[in-house]
Each structure stands twice: as structure tokens, then as C-alpha cells.
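User: Putative NADPH-quinone reductase, Ruegeria conchae:
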Amino acid sequence: MPAKKILVLNGHPAESSLSRTFAQTYADAAIAKGHEVRMVHLSDLQFDHDFGQGNYEDFKPLEPVLEQVLQDIEWSDHLVLTTPMWWGGLPAKLKGLIDRTFIPGRTFDTRNTTKIGLPAPMLSGRTARVILTSDTPGWFMRLIYRQALLRQLRDQVLGFVGFKPTRFTYFASASYPNPGSVERWIGKVARMGAAAL
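Assistant: Predicted structure for Putative NADPH-quinone reductase:
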């Protein structure tokens, strides 16, 4: 398998978290198999995560840390995002990172459209893996919530700018895991990292 350029983004805003453990585990396993990996920890980034009153023609200039994140995304073949689900969505700082960096002219093109009239994606040819932790049981996520956050990330965020396919790994209950669960989860993430999936 040819080496991939992989960006691992730990989307948990705390310095220590299960998401960080998964991010490091994935990165270490991928590096051991000869893949080129860049790592970003959301907790290390200082930026204004409010998109504010900007628009597509007049949005806030990117802080240097956000410009670097965007360059890392553009560099990558494969994006790995580790994040918790909070209140059915993403942590506010991670949502702010997306709001600020997924901008026209860099990630999608409003001057050109797809066959169905959407802005043309500018990050096509890349794949993604989202490793999501939650306290919501998997069956409840599927049957009651209809995988809402997964569909949002797949179709309205990552797919919108060109990441296809986006695959998901879902771990619950993350706050109070059963004995041995975290070790099994880490093993699964390590295998995904080794295979660059």
C-alpha cells in the first residue's frame, strides 16, 4: 500500500481526553507503517471561533494557526477527526474551527457548481475517518436520533468540500465505559491507523 499523507485532528478542546488518546494511537500506528502524519490538537490552538458578521466576500482573516490547519488539510490525502459528541453536536471550539477554516476559495467554489447546483468542492480526492465518542447507546443513535451528527458531518461538512468517503467509528458509553472497553477501543483505533483507514 502506498504511503498516505494523513492529518490527525484531535477535536476535543481539553488537553487530556479519550479523543486525544485515540488521535495519538492512530498517528503512532500509521507512522509505524510508513505513512506521513501531521497532528493537530484543538486545545493547542488559540483563535476567535466566532464567524461573526462576516460573509463570503468579507470574512475574518485567518489567524496563523488556522491558516496552518487549512494548509495541513490541503496537504493531506486522508483526514482523521477524533471528537466527542456533546448535546447532539460538536464541541463549540471545533465547530468554530470548521466555520472559520472551511471557506470559499479554499474548500469550496461558489463560482462553479455541481450538477445539482451546489458549490463545487475544492478538496476532492481525499478521504476521512471520524472517531466519535458519546454516552448515547449506538442503537439509540441509530433508531431515535437517525445518526444526525454522522449525516451532518458526512454530507453537509466533509462531503460538501470533497471528502469521500467519510467513514465513522462510534464508541459509547465513553464517560463510564465497561471494564476493558477502552483497551478494546484503543486496539481497534491502532488497527485502523496501521491500515490508514
